[in-house]
Design brief:
By secondary structure, the protein is mainly alpha-helical. It is about 50% helix and about 0% strand. The chain has a single domain (about 25-300), classed as Glycosyltransferase (Alpha/alpha barrel), CATH 1.50.10.
């Protein structure tokens, strides 16, 4: 009885069995690999790291760098490490010199995703956040404030990397499931709903998924059933999700400035895809991005 009560209070993964039973055919794996290599032929770079075209790096840590590092893509992991100042301040991309809104919660979510492949300046950023009580010091709104969901994910990332959580991390985790579940129903589709799925993904991959956090992701997927990223978080590397991804996978667009899997699917953002989000998806389905050949345009900063 005491054990059951503790599980309920902590809203942890106690007793929760992963419902995903993914099955992916060799044919789909091959098709994804082929599409990945085709995309690698045109996905743009900013100097030596993946980016949107024209070195548009405003959301690089939140999108490209963080997620590609999560699946072990070496150039993006290097970009993540270079997106932290000496004092531990997280940046949107390597060596940016923003004087306001230096970072945000979505940048931190991408940075935490990067830690799934190993530790990349985690302690520097964590110590900055603990010292100042926020993600950045120059926000013009609430984007750098710490929410219970954010604190929970900081704690789980910290634990995932082998460190002990402090009291604030433990206490905020009590509100994670209910808060995120409510958001999955109420926030608008698009980037806000994507942040809910991001949080569910991080809970899953750090070993802290619960029934409610899984159902949170499923809620989001039911609201956006044509998003292959949402499909993966709910079903894993499954044939259904692979076929969905292949059906939407774009040819090279003229404009390459969207991380389309974070957008409302009704916006058809893949028509302006930067390509890298599809390479991220391909890695989730088993492609080793470090083995592809990249010939996309290399842009330089002004």
């Amino acid at each position: 009885m005491k054990y059951t009560f503790l599980c309920a209070v902590l809203l942890s993964s106690c007793g929760f069995s992963d419902p995903r039973t993914p099955s992916l055919s060799e044919n789909s794996k091959l098709h994804i690999l082929l599409r990945a290599q085709q995309t690698a032929n045109w996905a743009p770079w900013c100097e030596d790291y993946p980016s949107k075209a024209n070195c548009n790096t405003g959301d690089l840590t939140a999108e490209v760098s963080g997620h590609l590092c999560a699946v072990g893509f070496a150039p993006s992991c290097d970009a993540v490490r270079r997106s932290v100042r000496d004092n531990g301040q997280l940046l949107r991309a390597p060596n940016r010199t923003d004087t306001s809104n230096t970072a945000s919660r979505d940048q931190l979510f991408g940075f935490m995703a990067a830690q799934l492949s190993g530790e990349h300046r985690w302690l520097d950023v964590k110590r900055f956040i603990k010292r100042h009580g926020k993600i950045c010091l120059d926000a013009t709104d609430t984007r750098c404030e710490l929410t219970p969901v954010t604190w929970s994910l900081i704690g789980w990332t910290h634990k995932h990397l082998g460190y002990d959580r402090d009291v604030s991390m433990l206490l905020n985790a009590l509100a994670f499931d209910q808060t995120l579940f409510t958001q999955s129903v109420g926030v608008p589709t698009g980037y806000q709903l994507n942040l809910v799925v991001e949080a569910s993904y991080l809970a899953w991959k750090t070993g802290n998924e619960s029934r409610m956090s899984y159902e949170t992701a499923r809620n989001a997927y039911l609201r956006q059933p044509f998003n292959p990223w949402f499909c993966y978080v709910v079903k894993g590397a499954d044939e259904e999700c692979a076929r969905l991804a292949l059906s939407l996978w774009p040819e090279e667009p003229e404009v390459k400035d969207q991380w389309s899997i974070a957008r409302d699917t009704n916006d058809h953002a893949w028509s302006k895809s930067m390509g890298w989000e599809w390479l991220f998806l391909s890695a989730l389905f088993g492609t080793d991005l470090n083995l592809l050949h990249y010939t996309g345009t290399i842009y330089t900063k002004d």
